[in-house]
Amino acid sequence: MLAVRIRRITGAHWLGFYGLVAGSWAALYAMRLPPEALAAAEAYGAEFWLALCAVEPGVAGVPALTAMWAAMAAAMMAPTLLPALATFDDLVQGGAARRQDFTVLLAGYLAVWLGFAVLAAAWQMALAGAGLLTPLGASAERWFSALLLAGAGAYQFTTLKDACLSRCRRPLIFFMAYWAEGPARMGFRLGLACLGCCWALMALAFVGGTMNLAFMGLAMVLMTLEKLPRWGTPLTRPLGAVLLAAAVLTLMI
Question: 35-44, 114-123, 226-235: which has the minimum mean pLDDT?
Answer without folding.
Answer: 35-44
